[in-house]
Amino acid sequence: MQTTQTTTDTTSPDSAAYAPTDRTVPTRAKERASYDKETVFQILDESYVCHLGFVRDGAPVVLPTLYGRVGDHLYVHGSTGSRPLRMAGAGQEEQADPGLQVCLTVTHVDGLVLARSAFHHSMNYRSVVVHGTARQVTDPEEKRTALDALVDHIVPGRAADSRPANAKELAATAVLRLDLDEVSAKARTGGPNDDPEDMDLPYWSGVVPLRKGYDALIPSTDLAPGIEVPDYLIEL
Amino acid sequence: MQTTQTTTDTTSPDSAAYAPTDRTVPTRAKERASYDKETVFQILDESYVCHLGFVRDGAPVVLPTLYGRVGDHLYVHGSTGSRPLRMAGAGQEEQADPGLQVCLTVTHVDGLVLARSAFHHSMNYRSVVVHGTARQVTDPEEKRTALDALVDHIVPGRAADSRPANAKELAATAVLRLDLDEVSAKARTGGPNDDPEDMDLPYWSGVVPLRKGYDALIPSTDLAPGIEVPDYLIEL
């Protein structure tokens, strides 16, 4: 769903979709790309880790990390001593913060696509790629909101059912914000796209769906007496 | 398992572990890092997509992509028209190929770690980060081997049970090789690391393991008559 400059809709195109840019229009398989915000939010909210890319000494670095979303903002966190946080200016005065150019990518692998031809083997997946500048969060209120979002991203409802960070923990934690602005989603669904002349070849073809969900909870062995499994875990 | 220069073992240290470098020694949680080759191979072989990072116009780009492994070489592929492949010099003469600096990262999320304190919430994960220069594969034999590895990475045994790429498909496909040389693995396992003073707080704590495996196969609707599910899928 691309926005256009000629829309006569009275609602802002920004309310429903991101504007495509040179970086977010793929060179290949353009039909798999989407700029629809709801699609982007669903993919982001369903994943547990993102892959955060940044440039260090001219070379790319890609690290897996937790994240949280609050509306059109993504938050990642880390020790104030970690490399990307230091590079983003954690601990510096806000006005001196140059930010850190990042690319934040989230991917779900949904199924293995087995075609008759080796060439058409593929994956069913959903991904979101976000380009932008991550900046440290210095406002204490926003920092608390971001940390709650990070915990609630692991399990919705969990932030309210755990001990909030104390002053020492807050001081040791740096939070970066990345605004959702230059964003695209991409997805592949369905069966293999075999060539017509391959249809009668003697190879099984189809999709192997990857299993999703959770296995049985493993409670800590030292749980205080009388603590029951909370509803938000039963409902997972 | 770090190698040392003072080992008296008669086997080469390179045979069992990668030598740590400035880029592969983490600034935080060093005890979670490993340079053991078998550990690295297991993590790489069990995942389906990697996140490939590179630098374009000075900014980081992180894209999910399939990969395959042959010994100490990783292979990624793509259309000769795709950005990272073009940037790596696909289509150029080999002697002019400058390669593409990349960071290739693979991550498994194994469980959600719910601590009594928000601060100690975490994930159980296993990841591998590879730094290096990806170069296009021009040798036809190596290219075929790489493409077989890419298909066999999806499902072991599948390359031999599908139609091999023909000349036109081979010409349309670029393959990049990344040598496993500057590599580290990182993992977190086990329960939450709550602080001693938090042990009696009235919050459930423990681990929510993520389910792994496969759901029921979805055969193509137009399978030729008499095609049965192959053993390598039954054994998945």
Care to describe what's here?
Two copies of one chain form a homodimer. With 236 residues, the first copy, chain A, is α+β, with helices and mostly antiparallel strands. In chain A, 17% of the residues lie in helices and 33% in strands. The first copy, chain A, has helices spanning 37-46, 83-87, 140-154, 167-172, 231-234, and strands at residues 33-34, 49-56, 59-66, 68-70, 73-79, 100-114, 122-136, 173-179, 182-188, 206-209, 218-219. In chain A, strands 1, 2, 3, 4, 5, 6, 7, 8, 9 and 10 form a ten-stranded antiparallel sheet that branches. In chain A, a hairpin with a 2-residue loop joins β2 and β3 (59-66). Chain A is globular. The two termini of chain A are 31 Å apart. The interface between A and B is large, with 98 and 98 residues. β10 (206-209) of chain A pairs antiparallel with β11 (218-219) of chain B.
Quick structural summary:
Helices cover 17% and strands 33% of the residues of chain A. With 236 residues, chain A is of the alpha+beta class.
Secondary structure: elements and pairs:
The structure is a homodimer of 236-residue chains.
Chain A: E1 33-34, H1 37-46, E2 49-56, E3 59-66, E4 68-70, E5 73-79, H2 83-87, E6 100-114, E7 122-136, H3 140-154, H4 167-172, E8 173-179, E9 182-188, E10 206-209, E11 218-219, H5 231-234
Antiparallel strand pairs in A: 1-9, 2-3, 2-6, 4-5, 5-8, 6-7, 6-10, 7-8, 7-9
Helix content of chain A: 10-25%
* Backbone CA Rg of chain A: 21 Å
The best one-word shape of chain A is globular
Average of the residue pLDDT scores of chain A: 90
Number of strands of chain A: 11
* Structural class label of chain A: alpha+beta
Low-confidence stretches of chain A: 1-13
Kindly report the greatest chain-chain contact and the residue count on each side: A-B, 98 and 98 residues
Proportion of strand residues of chain A: 25-35%
Work out the oligomeric state of the chains in this entry. homodimer
Strand count, sense and barrel status of the largest sheet of chain A are:
10 strands, antiparallel
Q: How far apart lie the N and C ends of chain A? A: 31 Å
Total helical segments of chain A: 5
Order of helices and strands of chain A: EHEEEEHEEHHEEEEH
